[in-house]
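The following record pairs a protein chain with its ligand, S-adenosyl-L-homocysteine.
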Amino acid sequence: MPTIYDTDAIDELRSRLGVQPHRMKLFRNALFKNAGSWDEALVQLPEHARDEFSNRITVECLELIERHDSDVDVASKLIFQTHDQHLVESVVLRPKTGRTSICISSQVGCACYCSFCATGMMGFTRNLTVSEILDQVTQANRMLKPEKRSIRNVVFMGMGEPLLNLKNVFEAVTFLKVAPFFNLSGTRITVSTVGIPQAMAQFAETFPDVNLALSLHSARQEVREKLMPQAKKYPLEQLRETLVDASRNGKVMIEYLMLSGVNDREEDLRALEDYLRGIPVHINIIPFNEYAGSNLHGTPELERKQFASRLKQAGFDTTLRYSLGSDIAAACGQLVQHRRKEIVP
Ligand code: SAH
């Protein structure tokens, strides 16, 4: 069944039923601007059109099956089930200073198999559709409404590799940007990638105002290959050229997950500085969220701080990321993994 994001199907239905465009605007505003329910949206339509819309268009394509609110901070983890019984997750973050954000998934599982990522252990099942990607944001907005909040920032850092679901992610980003849908400025959207040069170039050309984040994690080819199998296909040298081009639109975010004894030594720091020198980037140092099944360990906080200050001294714009929602396992893929273990003992 078409969803509320299938604009062609909705337009066809609207004109067949003779619904005035301004009523459609009210209908969409009720759903998106006011984060209203389906019933609240339907009453904006003329009476004769309501049943047809209800029978022919679906509002939710994901079923919210679990919500976990963090005790220690301001994160909520949402677990959704797709119509074909797969699980995907999103994390809503309410930082004390800053905008309410959501980290969304773009695929069921992931085909990249990064050694530090729980989602990688699940393997790849399928791409999420445009509606499934967007429904995570719509349902989060509905959840936030009683708190008088709404999603002001969207990051594609949940399950999956967004640039391997290029067509749907591009379409979803377009919806996120436009009124009467989500109406977010490009600077409030970030797409994070393992680093697929051609897709990154296409992304930078199509969405010059949307933030791009590269999960670099090592500037040493042999180390990066061990962490991220995709690095064999797309060597650092090639990636650097893409980075130089993409950063013409503005700073690219470099994600650097710090793993003890793996990518946190002096030679790793030097390699990183050499690799990024001269490129306008923002480096984000990330703590490792441990999960069952991984034998990797995060670099202690003090060393992470030292690594970051050395980068700052070298002139790089650098920040430390603090993990929100650690008590509800809000790192990439963690919770779905927990749940799976409960289902399959
Ligand atoms: N595939 C994309 C987006 C999903 S992962 C990408 O790789 O960028 C989003 C971010 O979460 C990446 O920077 C990834 O390195 C990080 N991440 C994955 N597993 C993690 C873990 N166990 N702890 C902390 N960050 C993790």
